[in-house]
Amino acid sequence: MDWQEVSGNWVLIPPHPKAIIHFLGGAFVATAPQVTYRLLLEHLGSQGYAVIATPFVNTLDHSAIAKSVLQSFDRTIDELRTKSILKRRYLPTYGIGHSMGSKLHLLIGSLFPVDRAGNVLISFNNFAARDAIPFVEQLNFNPGFNVEFTPSPTETNNLIAKGYQVRRNLLVKFTKDTIDQTSPLTELLQKRFPDMVTPLTLAGNHLTPLGQDISWRSGKEFTPFDAIGQWVKQEIYREFNQLKSVVLRWLNPLSSP
Q: What is the mean pLDDT of residues 221-232?
């Protein structure tokens, strides 16, 4: 099972897929999701999920990005069906997003009529541009020009509160993630869909979903520093493996643990 580029998306199709996953990554690592999220996405593919990862370039207009990635996803689905790569006419579709990718799935579910069996929203954040973009306040803009995302954080929350259509949601935050805003999102979604929103806090940090592929080479003699390096590597993979297990269990609650 190898990655294919189809209509601008990166695609993994197992022999008999049981569902489709539309994946959107974080703002600064989303241009090559098949590389930056390879370990996570290939694991999902190995478990029978067709993965469609949509690259995007971050701009201030998040509504436009949401529309663009949805259109790109739809084009890829059409091409896969036309070429009979996806043979079943209907498969449930889940959105999985990390960081900004979570915000985009929330905007897609709030602004457009989509059919989603559920969304997995990891490390959501909804900062204003001045907090999300380094040095934005130092840029020499006209004083009357307001640099802000579209929609703004407040507008985003209002859109979610009034229009978000995807009922079943898994919300994941990490214990050492200092830019996570999952807690207020949880309150918003639980008001909209009581008993359909599952919040979880896992060990890890904002980069845990990338499954950092760390290689630690010991010297000729095994030293205390080698022991520390191996321990760090084990801890990182333990956190990453826990995330993989949680996501798979939520996607298919009837599967074996």
A: 46
